[in-house]
């Protein structure tokens, strides 16, 4: 999370100081093509492509400047969060119905079995997986889907956790293209705040997990 924030701030400073005009012209061409493509296609791609490993960040950074003139920044944020909700739901369906049987057979051959999510609080289990560093977002979705954590809790937590990052990235991308330095630094601050909040939440959950107060992330169990 910190690296993402740092990278976005560096790009922001380059644009605002006039050292990235070539990049800005290229970006303007890309945004023009996105507007021709249309918001429905863009947000449909945002809902589908992360299920095969495409990162969310490029969508978030370009969504604001591409579609806020037509939808407003609030509309873009709402569409992006909806797209993430659809993505995690799609990933769950694929994992629980398509990928679970072969994974279950493979684990059984190794002498293990999939953990039973009914033994843990689904809200805490999903939250712990989502704030654990390392695994990419799509892999977390598949892991939770394979063990079939309760769907409602999974979708709500999985959509809420990245909402802060999405909002900050959308605001930052829109502010950068409009040349609004104050709003851009506010968005960068929001990204930093979201990253810091997740860091402390992760520490708290890890401590609770170590003391037996919260479930461990999904993994093979005998």
Task: Describe this entry's structure for a reader.
By secondary structure, this protein is an all-alpha fold. Helix content is 77%, strand content 0%. The chain has helices at residues 2-16, 21-37, 39-48, 57-109, 122-131, 137-146, 151-160, 163-178, 181-210. The protein is globular and about 55 Å long. Residues 1-10 and 16-20 have low confidence and may be disordered.
Q: Which features would summarize this protein structure in a list?
A:
0% strand; 9 helices; single chain; 222 residues; mainly alpha
Unreliable segments of 5+ consecutive residues: 1-10, 16-20
Overall morphology: globular
Give the biggest sheet: none
- Helix count? 9
DSSP strand tally: 0
The CA-CA distance between the termini, in Å, is 34 Å
Structural class: mainly alpha
Chain-averaged pLDDT: 78
> Share of helix among residues?
over 70%
- Fraction in beta strands: under 5%
Radius of gyration, in Å, reads 19 Å
Task: Give the H and E element order.
Answer: HHHHHHHHH
Summarize the structure.
This protein has 222 residues and is mostly helical. The protein has 9 helices and no strands.
Topology summary:
Layout: H1 2-16, H2 21-37, H3 39-48, H4 57-109, H5 122-131, H6 137-146, H7 151-160, H8 163-178, H9 181-210
């Amino acid at each position: 999370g910190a690296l993402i924030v740092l990278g976005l701030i560096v790009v922001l400073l380059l644009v605002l100081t006039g050292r990235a005009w070539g990049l800005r012209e290229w970006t303007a061409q890309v945004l023009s093509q996105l507007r021709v493509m249309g918001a429905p296609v863009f947000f449909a791609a945002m809902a589908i492509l992360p299920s095969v490993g495409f990162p969310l960040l490029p969508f978030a950074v370009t969504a604001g400047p591409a579609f806020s003139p037509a939808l407003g920044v609030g509309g873009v944020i709402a569409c992006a969060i909806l797209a993430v909700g659809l993505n995690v739901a799609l990933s769950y369906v694929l994992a629980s119905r398509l990928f679970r049987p072969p994974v279950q057979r493979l684990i059984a051959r190794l002498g293990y079995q999939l953990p039973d999510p009914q033994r843990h609080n689904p809200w805490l289990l999903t939250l712990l997986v989502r704030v654990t560093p390392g695994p990419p977002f799509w892999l977390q979705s598949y892991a939770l889907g394979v063990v079939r954590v309760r769907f409602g809790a999974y979708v709500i937590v999985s959509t809420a956790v990245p909402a802060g990052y999405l909002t900050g990235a959308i605001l930052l991308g829109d502010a950068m293209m409009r040349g609004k330095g104050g709003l851009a630094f506010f968005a960068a601050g929001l990204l930093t705040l979201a990253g810091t909040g997740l860091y402390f939440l992760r520490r708290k959950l890890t401590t609770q997990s170590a003391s037996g107060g919260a479930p461990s992330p999904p993994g093979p169990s005998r």
